[in-house]
Write a structure and sequence with these properties.
With 352 residues, this protein is an alpha+beta fold. The protein contains eleven helices and ten strands.
Amino acid sequence: MSPFDDATLDHLRGVLRELSTAEPSAAPSLAFPLRPYELLEEIGRGGMGVVYRARDRVLERDVALKVIAPGGASADLAARLGREARILAQLEHPGIVPVHDVGVLADGRAYAAMKLVRGEPLSSWLAARGAERPGRAGERELAERLRLLLKVLETVAFAHARGVVHCDLKPGNIMVGSFGEVLVLDWGLARHHGSPAEAAEAAAESTAPAERAPAGAAGVRHATGATVSGAVLGTPGYMAPEQERGERTALDGRTDVFALGAILGELTAGAAPPAAVLSIARRAQALLPAERYPNVEAMAADVARFLARQPVSAHRERPGEVLRRWYARYEAPILLVVAYLLLRILFWVWPR
């Protein structure tokens, strides 16, 4: 005979039936909040929206939260933000900011949560340092700036190796950290060659005539170096000719090489840079893509050769330049030999 009465047995049978028919998702969980971010302060603003320092309440860390500003074009911008996040997810490199999360805030704005970068834009870094100093101090300053550029070139070359072209390289999109780290930011205009989405965009563009956004149109801010919105996407002063003409299907790694040449020009502005450095910048900014460096690695090789006091491929040296370069490269042993010869001469001519 059962020790339970009929009412207790009926209750137990009902509980068993509920457990057996319950959905797996109805089981107890860690109960993560749907939107765990608390906006703390605005740290940047651009053509796509606003960037906040936000607190991730689940993992208890600060992140950079890029949020699409509300407006008529928010759907297109949200799609572009999601595309940028997918591209960043495929570019795992120390010089590229990782993306942690994408989603929608309570007010309906799309967001992407990224690593919070602590540092200053290259434009501010250059402004704080001022013009290059003359003499040996200037040589050391130029070498430091070129080594920084090499880090940017390495990062961009990594992206190109994975089929991604940045298309909006400029000092404002390069961050210099407190410990010398360099990060390339804002991949919102990047083109990912070989991806299905990129192929669909290229097919759509090939059937529509390219249009240039007129000067003074909404979203075009030349004086501030802001990214142009409209059919032509990029930043005046850093866009290659084919990019300014709106030939988006013609953009490749040499388009970024042009922008990197413009950045090199800014790194050496305010001083009289060596002719070899000017030649590197001029070749990178050639009007025709075929006359530029074929890839970022070739440009980086020339910069590295200049730092090593070797001849660069973009510059034809004169005899005087060859002598100066050799003296700079072998200055210490040359001075030792000269000192030794002077001592020998003094030894022979000194009265005995």
